[in-house]
Amino acid sequence: MTIAWGSLLVVFIVSFGAAVAVVVLVTCALVALSARARATTVPAGGAGGGLSAGAGTVVAGVCLAAAAAIVLYGLYVIVAA
Question: CA-CA distance, 8 to 52, in Å (whole number)?
């Protein structure tokens, strides 16, 4: 029995990259959702900066959809193999 070290390295790199991508996407979604909280606490004439509440919600939805797509594709690859 031998270990295909090259294949093992490829699996490690892909799984590590997917894990980092999912964590980054969920983090970006949470930061984008925080625009909703900022929109309610910043005074009307104040310098809010950043995303509007609607744009933050859209960005968060896109980030969460991308993270879900990565996870679902990984599950598909596991089940289909």
Answer: 44
- pTM for the full model? 0.79
Give the orientation angle of helix 53-80 with respect to helix 5-41, to 10 degrees: 160
Question: Which residues are CB-contacts of 25 (< 8 A; sequence separation ≥ 6)?
Answer: 63, 64, 66, 67, 70
Between 39 and 50, residue with greater pLDDT: 50
Q: How many CB atoms lie within 10 A of CB 22?
A: 17
Please report, for residues 5, 11, 26, 32, 42, the alpha-carbon distance to residue 8 in angstroms, rounded to integers and kept in the order given.
Answer: 5, 5, 27, 36, 51
Is residue 63 within 8 A of residue 28, CB to CB? The reply is yes
Q: Which amino acid is at 11?
A: V
For the cut 90, the answer to whether the pLDDT of residue 50 exceeds it is no
Does an H or E element contain 18, and which? Answer: helix 5-41
